[in-house]
Amino acid sequence: MTSSSTPAHAHAGPPDTKLDRHVLIVAGVVVLGAIMSILDVTVVSVAQNTFQQEFGTDAAGAAWTMTGYTLALAAVIPLSSWAAARFGTKKVYLTSLVLFVLGSALCALAWNIGSLVAFRVIQGLGGGMLMPIGMMILTKAAGPERVGSVMAVLGIPMLLGPIGGPILGGLLIEKASWHWVFLINVPIGIVAIIYSWFALRDDEETTRPSFDIIGLLLLSPGLALFLYGISSSAEAGTFVSAKVLIPAIVGAVLIGTFIWHALRAKNPLLDLRLFRNRTLSIAVIAMTLFMIAFFGASLLYPQYFIGVRGETTLSAGLLLAPQGIGAMLTMPIAGKMTDKIGPGKFVLGGIILIFLGMGTFVFLGADTSYWLLCGALFVQGLGMGMTMMPIMSAALATLNNKQVPDGSTMMNVVQQTASSIGTAIIAVILASNLKSSPDAGLAIVSNTDPAKLGGMPVPASAFEHAAEAFGHTFVVAAILVAVTFIPALFLPRKKIASPLVEEDMDRAPIIMH
Fold first, then answer.
1. 3-state secondary structure string, 121-162?
2. How far is 187 from 324, CA to CA, in rounded Å?
């Protein structure tokens, strides 16, 4: 490139990676939205038994409060890039917040399980765009040279949500009522709406004249069907079931057709040609494998503490706190250093720490020391803080402002899909391992629903067999973490060069970093 088309900061020495006041204010807006949407998922999962009792439904009926929300997310996330270009990120973000808060208030007023599921869908339509639009706002505000630092800020609620959710959910249900699982979002959401109105800047005029209706009709239902099929495997206890395979295969075909369409369309719903960018492609592969392992394993920790050790939901959440503390210690450092030296070195070190921490759980027993397990969770948390957001930063740092909406949306599609796959894989394997031991299931039931046993004594060996089933499942999760090391080897181990300016990117090929 000639000097006339080179970004000004390329000649001005190393760019300042310190976050200024405006970026920190914007980060506060986005974190508020992220906290609500991420905590909501885990808090509602804690309330499943309560919903069954309050609304007189079974586990499958209550599960639709999770499934309906997830399907709404899947349907609306692909629209994020187009909506941001058409209406501007501020308007879309505010609309998403209003929908989420409205859905939350309506959920608290639900009179039966059907109305609750319907209102959860409204909540999901709002929540689906909060993360991708928030990532767009943050990335554009900070610029590519500071994307690692701002992603570290956004990563805090992403990593703490699965830990804080059970604690908050347990407190609200035990001390107040199930209504507050949803009502707590209302005051936070109102603050977020007012804060966003004043803090976010209006977007400059954007032009994207055509709307890819074919892409929407392929990707949104395809993603929703695929995730529905995959998530149904947990209830079915197997992947080899018509309820799992039919929607998953139909969804996969629709997604595959969308990919074929998007690579040929002039203005696709998502520009998949971004995958010509080598760093982006490697980061997406690494992120997919990491999310499958992370969300899959996240399912196991509270289930072990509650089902095998007999802890309450609140106690199980507190036992997971060391993982969050570890992540909070390393994430800000990893974010800043990623901006300066690239993500490769930190991610590799983080994966090793996660593997070591998770490896401890492979040898679980019915009375394994909590000091040992909490120490392992702390080590794992240190690794998580060094892994997830630097990988995401590696992808977004290579994109210019015009590419950020598509890149951010794709990363969120990957996160949603990978987390659902990880949860499904681990849930099916755990169910299989528990069934392989005739009395392991008795141990779980004795701690989660003792009334079903009718006073029948449970032998001590049952708890040991249940712990072994969890340990064998952690072997799979640890292997998935180890596999993430392969694409991570190819992540940049030096500062990622800034992308071309927008004018040059309209027709220029994407630079490989």
1. HHHHHHHHHHHHHHHHHHHHHHCHHHHHHHHHHHHHHHHHHH
2. 25
In the block, tokens 């640890």 appear at: 478
Element counts in the chain: helices (H) and strands (E): 21, 0
d(C-alpha 474, C-alpha 83), whole Å: 40
The CA distances from residue 225 to 50, 119, 221, 508, in Å, are 27, 20, 6, 36
The total of other beta-carbon atoms located within 10 Å of residue 432's CB is 14
Q: Nearest Cα to 244, choosing from 475, 427, 57, 479?
A: 427
Calpha distance 240→170 (Å, rounded): 34
Contact between 32 and 195 under an 8 Å Cβ cutoff? The reply is yes
Q: Provide the H-helix boundaries in 237-320.
A: 242-262, 278-303, 313-319
Of 77, 75, 83, 72, which is closest to residue 124 (Cα–Cα)?
72
Distance (Å, whole) CA 333 – CA 419:
25
Residue pair 188/34 in contact by the 8 Å Cβ criterion: no
Helices (H), 143-262: 147-175, 180-183, 185-199, 213-236, 242-262
Question: In 3-state terms, what secondary structure has residue 442?
Answer: helix
With b for 16 or more beta-carbon neighbours within 10 A and e for fewer, the 326-340 pattern comes to bbbebbbebbbbbbe
Predicted local confidence at residue 17, as pLDDT: 55
Please say whether the beta carbons of 94 and 194 come within 8 A. Answer: no
Q: Report d(CA 52, CA 58) in Å as an integer.
A: 6
Residue type, 309: R
Residues 6+ apart with CB under 8 A from 119: 103, 106, 107, 109, 110
Residues 6+ apart with CB under 8 A from 207: none
pLDDT at position 507:
36
What are 336's two structure tokens? Answer: 């800043």
pLDDT digits (tens, 9 = 90+) for 255-302: 999 999 988 888 888 888 888 888 888 988 998 999 888 888 887 888
φ, ψ of residue 391 to 5 degrees: the values are -65, -45
Of 346, 332, 430, the closest CA to residue 387 belongs to 346
CA-to-CA separations, 107 to 98, 228, 456, 481, in angstroms, rounded: 14, 22, 38, 37
Q: How far apart are CA 182 and CA 47, in angstroms?
A: 11
pLDDT in tens, 151-169: 777 777 766 776 677 778 8
Q: How far apart are CA 205 and CA 78, in angstroms?
A: 22
Structure tokens at 32: 């508020």
- The closest of 203, 190, 225 to 74, measured between CA atoms, is 225
Give yes or no for a contact between 123 and 99, defined as CB atoms under 8 angstroms apart: yes
